[in-house]
Amino acid sequence: MEESKKRRRLLSQRSPRTRSVLLATGVLVVAISPFAAARTGDVLRQGKRGGTATAETKIIGNIRSTTATTGGYVTRQSNLSTDGGGAVYGCRSKAGGSAATPTPQNPCIRANNLSTGHAFEFQSSNGDVGGLFTVGTGGDAKKPFTTNATGVATGLNADRVDGLDAAQVVAAARTKTGLDADTVDGKDSTDLLPRFAQVTAAGTLGESRGVPSTGGLAHVAASGVYEVVFTGDLGKCAVSATLTDATGGEVAATPAVAAGNTTVTVRTATSAGTPADRSFHLLASC
Question: Can you give the residue ranges of every domain in the chain?
Protein backbone atom coordinates (compact mmCIF):
# COMPACT_ATOMS: atom_id res chain seq x y z
CA MET A 1 0.00 0.00 0.00
CA GLU A 2 2.79 2.31 0.95
CA GLU A 3 4.69 1.44 -2.30
CA SER A 4 1.67 2.36 -4.44
CA LYS A 5 1.41 5.75 -2.77
CA LYS A 6 5.08 6.43 -3.53
CA ARG A 7 4.63 5.70 -7.27
CA ARG A 8 1.63 8.06 -7.45
CA ARG A 9 3.62 10.84 -5.79
CA LEU A 10 6.54 10.38 -8.26
CA LEU A 11 4.21 10.50 -11.26
CA SER A 12 2.46 13.62 -9.99
CA GLN A 13 5.81 15.34 -9.48
CA ARG A 14 6.88 14.88 -13.18
CA SER A 15 6.32 17.67 -15.71
CA PRO A 16 3.19 17.71 -17.96
CA ARG A 17 5.44 17.18 -21.04
CA THR A 18 6.93 14.00 -19.59
CA ARG A 19 3.50 12.63 -18.82
CA SER A 20 2.34 13.43 -22.40
CA VAL A 21 5.30 11.59 -23.97
CA LEU A 22 4.67 8.52 -21.85
CA LEU A 23 0.99 8.54 -22.73
CA ALA A 24 1.62 8.97 -26.48
CA THR A 25 4.16 6.14 -26.50
CA GLY A 26 1.68 3.82 -24.88
CA VAL A 27 -1.03 4.71 -27.42
CA LEU A 28 1.38 4.20 -30.35
CA VAL A 29 2.36 0.74 -29.14
CA VAL A 30 -1.26 -0.28 -28.75
CA ALA A 31 -2.18 1.10 -32.22
CA ILE A 32 0.70 -0.53 -34.11
CA SER A 33 0.47 -3.97 -32.55
CA PRO A 34 -2.56 -5.22 -34.59
CA PHE A 35 -0.96 -4.20 -37.90
CA ALA A 36 2.34 -5.85 -37.04
CA ALA A 37 0.57 -9.05 -36.14
CA ALA A 38 -1.59 -9.01 -39.29
CA ARG A 39 1.33 -8.50 -41.74
CA THR A 40 1.85 -11.63 -43.91
CA GLY A 41 4.37 -10.32 -46.46
CA ASP A 42 7.90 -9.07 -45.96
CA VAL A 43 9.57 -5.69 -45.89
CA LEU A 44 11.98 -4.57 -48.63
CA ARG A 45 15.48 -5.17 -47.33
CA GLN A 46 18.63 -4.12 -49.17
CA GLY A 47 20.57 -7.08 -50.55
CA LYS A 48 18.02 -9.57 -49.24
CA ARG A 49 15.27 -11.60 -50.86
CA GLY A 50 11.81 -10.76 -49.67
CA GLY A 51 9.06 -13.19 -48.87
CA THR A 52 6.86 -14.77 -51.55
CA ALA A 53 3.67 -12.75 -51.95
CA THR A 54 0.34 -14.43 -52.63
CA ALA A 55 -1.43 -11.25 -53.79
CA GLU A 56 -0.59 -8.31 -56.02
CA THR A 57 1.56 -5.56 -54.57
CA LYS A 58 0.06 -2.33 -55.88
CA ILE A 59 1.93 0.95 -56.08
CA ILE A 60 -0.50 3.68 -57.12
CA GLY A 61 0.44 7.27 -57.72
CA ASN A 62 -0.95 10.49 -59.18
CA ILE A 63 2.08 12.28 -60.59
CA ARG A 64 2.05 14.76 -63.47
CA SER A 65 4.57 14.62 -66.31
CA THR A 66 7.62 16.86 -66.24
CA THR A 67 10.39 18.01 -68.54
CA ALA A 68 12.99 17.58 -65.80
CA THR A 69 15.49 14.73 -65.87
CA THR A 70 13.64 13.04 -62.99
CA GLY A 71 10.03 12.98 -61.93
CA GLY A 72 6.82 12.18 -63.76
CA TYR A 73 6.80 8.45 -62.92
CA VAL A 74 5.36 6.49 -60.01
CA THR A 75 8.56 4.47 -59.56
CA ARG A 76 12.11 4.79 -60.85
CA GLN A 77 14.90 2.22 -60.87
CA SER A 78 18.43 3.20 -61.78
CA ASN A 79 21.83 1.53 -61.54
CA LEU A 80 24.94 3.71 -61.30
CA SER A 81 27.23 0.83 -62.26
CA THR A 82 28.77 0.96 -65.76
CA ASP A 83 28.01 -2.71 -66.47
CA GLY A 84 24.93 -3.51 -64.39
CA GLY A 85 21.27 -3.36 -65.45
CA GLY A 86 18.33 -1.42 -64.10
CA ALA A 87 15.73 -4.12 -63.54
CA VAL A 88 15.00 -7.81 -64.13
CA TYR A 89 11.52 -9.28 -64.39
CA GLY A 90 11.19 -13.05 -64.54
CA CYS A 91 8.16 -15.31 -64.62
CA ARG A 92 7.13 -18.85 -65.48
CA SER A 93 4.02 -18.15 -67.52
CA LYS A 94 3.25 -20.81 -70.14
CA ALA A 95 1.86 -20.23 -73.61
CA GLY A 96 -1.91 -19.86 -73.39
CA GLY A 97 -4.78 -20.65 -75.70
CA SER A 98 -3.75 -24.23 -76.47
CA ALA A 99 -5.53 -27.48 -75.65
CA ALA A 100 -3.01 -28.15 -72.88
CA THR A 101 -3.23 -24.62 -71.51
CA PRO A 102 -6.65 -23.22 -72.50
CA THR A 103 -6.50 -20.27 -70.10
CA PRO A 104 -4.75 -17.18 -71.51
CA GLN A 105 -1.46 -16.61 -69.69
CA ASN A 106 -0.01 -13.31 -68.55
CA PRO A 107 3.29 -12.09 -70.05
CA CYS A 108 6.25 -11.35 -67.81
CA ILE A 109 5.91 -7.64 -68.57
CA ARG A 110 2.81 -5.78 -69.68
CA ALA A 111 2.60 -2.04 -70.37
CA ASN A 112 -0.98 -0.92 -71.01
CA ASN A 113 -1.73 2.74 -71.65
CA LEU A 114 -5.43 3.19 -70.99
CA SER A 115 -5.43 6.50 -72.86
CA THR A 116 -4.11 7.49 -76.30
CA GLY A 117 -0.38 7.84 -75.58
CA HIS A 118 2.48 5.41 -76.02
CA ALA A 119 2.45 2.13 -74.12
CA PHE A 120 6.23 1.86 -74.07
CA GLU A 121 9.41 3.63 -75.05
CA PHE A 122 12.92 2.21 -75.40
CA GLN A 123 15.91 4.49 -75.81
CA SER A 124 19.58 3.69 -76.23
CA SER A 125 21.22 7.07 -75.77
CA ASN A 126 24.71 6.22 -76.99
CA GLY A 127 24.58 2.61 -78.19
CA ASP A 128 24.80 1.32 -81.76
CA VAL A 129 22.14 -1.40 -81.25
CA GLY A 130 18.77 -0.58 -79.76
CA GLY A 131 18.02 -3.99 -78.30
CA LEU A 132 17.81 -7.73 -78.78
CA PHE A 133 15.03 -10.30 -79.18
CA THR A 134 16.00 -13.95 -78.62
CA VAL A 135 13.34 -16.65 -78.99
CA GLY A 136 14.36 -20.15 -77.92
CA THR A 137 17.06 -21.51 -80.21
CA GLY A 138 16.00 -19.23 -83.08
CA GLY A 139 15.33 -20.34 -86.63
CA ASP A 140 12.49 -19.95 -89.13
CA ALA A 141 9.91 -21.48 -86.77
CA LYS A 142 10.44 -18.71 -84.21
CA LYS A 143 8.96 -15.21 -84.49
CA PRO A 144 10.46 -12.13 -82.79
CA PHE A 145 6.98 -10.65 -82.27
CA THR A 146 3.50 -10.44 -83.79
CA THR A 147 1.25 -7.42 -84.35
CA ASN A 148 -2.21 -6.61 -85.63
CA ALA A 149 -1.04 -3.24 -86.94
CA THR A 150 -0.60 -3.21 -90.72
CA GLY A 151 0.42 0.42 -91.19
CA VAL A 152 3.91 1.46 -92.24
CA ALA A 153 6.28 1.82 -89.29
CA THR A 154 8.19 5.10 -89.40
CA GLY A 155 11.81 4.37 -90.22
CA LEU A 156 11.04 0.82 -91.39
CA ASN A 157 9.35 1.50 -94.72
CA ALA A 158 12.37 0.42 -96.81
CA ASP A 159 13.17 -3.27 -96.54
CA ARG A 160 16.84 -4.12 -96.65
CA VAL A 161 18.65 -7.22 -97.88
CA ASP A 162 22.32 -7.51 -97.02
CA GLY A 163 22.26 -3.85 -95.97
CA LEU A 164 20.81 -2.66 -99.29
CA ASP A 165 17.57 -0.75 -99.83
CA ALA A 166 15.18 -1.49 -102.70
CA ALA A 167 16.98 0.70 -105.26
CA GLN A 168 20.32 -0.81 -104.31
CA VAL A 169 18.89 -4.34 -104.58
CA VAL A 170 17.88 -3.64 -108.18
CA ALA A 171 21.30 -2.20 -108.96
CA ALA A 172 23.02 -5.15 -107.31
CA ALA A 173 20.86 -7.59 -109.28
CA ARG A 174 22.02 -5.99 -112.49
CA THR A 175 25.66 -6.27 -111.50
CA LYS A 176 25.25 -9.67 -109.80
CA THR A 177 26.95 -8.51 -106.59
CA GLY A 178 26.01 -8.04 -102.97
CA LEU A 179 23.15 -10.54 -102.90
CA ASP A 180 24.69 -13.89 -102.11
CA ALA A 181 24.03 -14.30 -98.40
CA ASP A 182 20.39 -13.79 -97.42
CA THR A 183 17.70 -16.39 -97.81
CA VAL A 184 13.95 -16.18 -98.44
CA ASP A 185 11.84 -19.33 -98.03
CA GLY A 186 15.02 -21.39 -97.97
CA LYS A 187 16.42 -19.90 -101.20
CA ASP A 188 19.31 -17.48 -101.44
CA SER A 189 19.01 -14.27 -103.38
CA THR A 190 20.61 -15.62 -106.56
CA ASP A 191 17.95 -18.35 -106.65
CA LEU A 192 15.24 -15.69 -106.59
CA LEU A 193 16.68 -13.70 -109.50
CA PRO A 194 16.01 -14.72 -113.15
CA ARG A 195 18.75 -16.82 -114.79
CA PHE A 196 19.86 -15.62 -118.19
CA ALA A 197 22.67 -15.90 -120.73
CA GLN A 198 23.75 -13.80 -123.69
CA VAL A 199 25.45 -16.01 -126.33
CA THR A 200 27.14 -14.93 -129.55
CA ALA A 201 26.91 -16.89 -132.82
CA ALA A 202 30.50 -18.03 -132.33
CA GLY A 203 29.61 -19.55 -128.95
CA THR A 204 31.02 -16.87 -126.64
CA LEU A 205 29.23 -16.18 -123.38
CA GLY A 206 28.43 -12.54 -122.65
CA GLU A 207 26.49 -11.22 -119.65
CA SER A 208 24.86 -13.98 -117.62
CA ARG A 209 23.44 -14.97 -114.24
CA GLY A 210 23.45 -18.48 -112.86
CA VAL A 211 25.90 -19.84 -115.46
CA PRO A 212 29.12 -21.38 -114.08
CA SER A 213 32.28 -19.51 -115.03
CA THR A 214 33.84 -22.79 -116.15
CA GLY A 215 31.98 -25.31 -118.28
CA GLY A 216 28.85 -23.21 -118.51
CA LEU A 217 28.69 -23.10 -122.34
CA ALA A 218 29.42 -25.63 -125.06
CA HIS A 219 29.05 -25.05 -128.84
CA VAL A 220 29.09 -27.45 -131.76
CA ALA A 221 30.60 -25.25 -134.47
CA ALA A 222 28.63 -24.62 -137.70
CA SER A 223 25.73 -26.76 -136.50
CA GLY A 224 23.67 -24.21 -134.60
CA VAL A 225 23.72 -26.29 -131.40
CA TYR A 226 24.61 -24.72 -128.04
CA GLU A 227 24.46 -26.13 -124.51
CA VAL A 228 24.07 -23.62 -121.67
CA VAL A 229 24.36 -24.87 -118.08
CA PHE A 230 22.47 -23.15 -115.26
CA THR A 231 23.20 -23.99 -111.63
CA GLY A 232 20.25 -25.50 -109.78
CA ASP A 233 17.11 -27.39 -110.73
CA LEU A 234 15.03 -25.31 -113.15
CA GLY A 235 12.50 -28.03 -113.76
CA LYS A 236 9.67 -25.78 -112.55
CA CYS A 237 10.83 -22.75 -114.51
CA ALA A 238 9.90 -21.44 -117.96
CA VAL A 239 12.85 -21.34 -120.40
CA SER A 240 12.80 -19.20 -123.53
CA ALA A 241 15.34 -18.21 -126.22
CA THR A 242 15.32 -15.26 -128.61
CA LEU A 243 17.50 -14.63 -131.68
CA THR A 244 19.29 -11.28 -131.43
CA ASP A 245 20.73 -10.76 -134.93
CA ALA A 246 18.97 -8.78 -137.67
CA THR A 247 18.32 -11.80 -139.85
CA GLY A 248 15.17 -13.79 -139.24
CA GLY A 249 15.39 -17.42 -138.29
CA GLU A 250 14.34 -20.16 -135.90
CA VAL A 251 15.41 -21.03 -132.33
CA ALA A 252 14.38 -23.76 -129.88
CA ALA A 253 15.40 -24.33 -126.23
CA THR A 254 15.17 -27.72 -124.48
CA PRO A 255 16.01 -27.92 -120.74
CA ALA A 256 17.20 -31.10 -119.01
CA VAL A 257 17.88 -31.45 -115.28
CA ALA A 258 20.80 -33.64 -114.19
CA ALA A 259 23.14 -33.78 -111.18
CA GLY A 260 21.42 -30.81 -109.55
CA ASN A 261 21.94 -28.47 -112.51
CA THR A 262 19.96 -27.69 -115.64
CA THR A 263 21.43 -27.88 -119.13
CA VAL A 264 19.50 -26.05 -121.84
CA THR A 265 20.16 -27.18 -125.40
CA VAL A 266 19.56 -24.34 -127.86
CA ARG A 267 19.24 -25.01 -131.61
CA THR A 268 19.33 -22.13 -134.05
CA ALA A 269 18.54 -22.15 -137.76
CA THR A 270 17.75 -19.95 -140.74
CA SER A 271 14.20 -18.98 -141.60
CA ALA A 272 14.19 -21.94 -143.96
CA GLY A 273 14.99 -24.30 -141.10
CA THR A 274 18.61 -24.94 -142.04
CA PRO A 275 20.82 -25.27 -138.92
CA ALA A 276 23.12 -22.26 -138.58
CA ASP A 277 25.07 -20.50 -135.86
CA ARG A 278 23.06 -17.52 -134.57
CA SER A 279 23.41 -15.19 -131.58
CA PHE A 280 20.65 -15.44 -128.98
CA HIS A 281 19.53 -14.60 -125.48
CA LEU A 282 18.37 -17.33 -123.09
CA LEU A 283 16.09 -16.67 -120.10
CA ALA A 284 14.81 -18.92 -117.31
CA SER A 285 11.90 -17.41 -115.34
CA CYS A 286 11.02 -19.15 -112.06
Answer: 158-193, 194-285
